[in-house]
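Quick check before the chapter quiz. The format below is the same one you will see on the exam, so make sure you can read both the input and the output lines.
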Amino acid sequence: MTSASAQPAALSAEQAKVVLAEVIQAFSAPENAVRMDEARDNACNDMGKMLQFVLPVATQIQQEVIKAYGFSCDGEGVLKFARLVKSYEAQDPEIASLSGKLKALFLPPMTLPPHGPASGGSVAAS
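Here is the expected output.
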């Protein structure tokens, strides 16, 4: 792999599935699970702190896997991988599912109000 970092990584949908599965597997490795737990504890479910503590750890874990597939070992490599995955999501339900699982590993669940923020009648103001 002499010039892998010089060329943009191009993966087929099947290769993208393999890499996504490897990335997800990397999150369950004991050392990475500990790193993510510590980052989540530091973030205290605060979105700003999630970006500060959890996202960098999640990015590092992804970088460790995707660099073997020709992506640069930096934030730009992770963004390129994310864009590639996103491009396959609409065509391939398995990629969409794996992508959702990956996001769930480092993004907190989003709780939406039942009828949107402007729904009034069901909650009494006190």
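If your answer matched, good. The chain has a mean pLDDT of 83.
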